[in-house]
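Practice problem 4.
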């Protein structure tokens, strides 16, 4: 089984700005290219941070209500600083959350979730920008055809990983949802098979309808119990 890597999923034609790019120039870039954020690069094309629509909105959020109907806005210290900034250096969120082109899309998705970001700036070994990967880029794996998922499960999971005949179990795939049915030799194979199928790119869910001939998990539990010293 092989997951796509970030280098295959990322966008390489990246629009960027420099630290001295003005507020209005940044906004024009976002509107012209239909972007929600743009990386800020130094003169060696290394990312310093990212300016997003949310960063630009700090300026608007800090304004007083001319009608006097709204309370004085309470902004975080960081947001208040951004509300007064006039260029990318002051507006950007820094440091940029970066990824390597060699990461799998799984690694990238985990970092996005953990850091709460919508995109990752992709850099080479020298720290220079080579692309940007966003949530939509990672989600494209779920557009895989059902037949392609089915073939990978039969070839890479059942045959190569488990050493079983390709038709050892019945595999059905519909809209990325995999259903496994049939009989396997040992109960321990069931959980392994389900786990490996979940790892196949494009799989949304796995339904286990498998049976087994031998419950080898009981034997393993007995062996473990025998190793526990008596008191």
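Answer key:
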């Amino acid at each position: 089984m092989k997951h796509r890597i970030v280098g295959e999923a990322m966008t390489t034609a990246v629009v960027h700005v420099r630290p001295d790019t003005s507020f209005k120039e940044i906004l024009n870039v976002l509107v012209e290219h239909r972007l929600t954020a743009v990386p800020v690069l130094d003169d060696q094309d290394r990312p310093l941070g990212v300016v997003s629509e949310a960063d630009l909105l700090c300026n608007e959020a800090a304004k007083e209500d001319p009608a006097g109907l709204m309370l004085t806005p309470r902004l975080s210290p960081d947001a208040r600083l951004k509300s007064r900034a006039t260029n990318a250096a002051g507006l950007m969120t820094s440091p940029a959350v970066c990824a390597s082109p060699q990461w799998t899309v799984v690694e990238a998705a985990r970092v996005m979730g953990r850091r709460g970001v919508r995109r990752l700036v992709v850099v080479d070994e020298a720290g220079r920008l080579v692309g940007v990967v966003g949530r939509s880029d990672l989600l494209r794996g779920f557009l895989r055809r059902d037949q392609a998922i089915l073939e990978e499960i039969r070839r890479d999971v059942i045959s190569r990983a488990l050493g079983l005949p390709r038709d050892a179990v019945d595999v059905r795939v519909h809209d990325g949802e995999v259903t496994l049915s049939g009989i396997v030799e040992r109960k321990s194979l069931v959980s392994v098979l389900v786990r490996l199928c979940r790892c196949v790119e494009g799989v949304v869910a796995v339904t286990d309808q498998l049976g087994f001939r031998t419950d080898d998990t009981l034997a393993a539990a007995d062996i473990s119990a025998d190793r526990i010293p008596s008191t």
